[in-house]
Amino acid sequence: MTKPSSLNTLIDLAQNSADGAARQLQELNSTRRDAEQQLATLQVYRRDYTERLQKTMSHGLSASNYHNFRQFIVTLDEAISLQNKALVQIKTKLESGREYWYEKKRRLNSYMTLLSRQARQQAESDNRSEQRTNDEISANLLRRTDKTY
Length: 149
Prior knowledge:
- 95% of the residues lie in helices and 0% in strands.
- The longest helix has 86 residues.
- It is built from two helices and no strands.
- The protein is mainly α.
- The protein starts with a helix and ends with a helix.
- The protein has one domain: Helix Hairpins.
């Protein structure tokens, strides 16, 4: 059976690994939130710009200004499309990071279960040993009392 110190070393390593995976997962979550915020900002900006175009068109607009408005909206659409793709990639990385963290936590939990089992077996062994010692002491006392009679 593995020595307690070896198992404790494995637990420490597994804990460090799980902590590192958790930190990576937090960073990925933060990156996802930032990407979602950027996407929302782009979408609001596009909506506002489209409304400005419509208001400006109702008052009259030159062809060159209309072209500039439309070109800028197309640029915003491209930026939104790229941000959507980036968000999909980040979500994929986030899912991988979550799976990696789960794997590290499972490994840590396995080692903790082994340590618990080992401690329970040691306690049972100690209890049996103590019981044997008590039985021997009782038997010796009984023999001594039988000899005195």
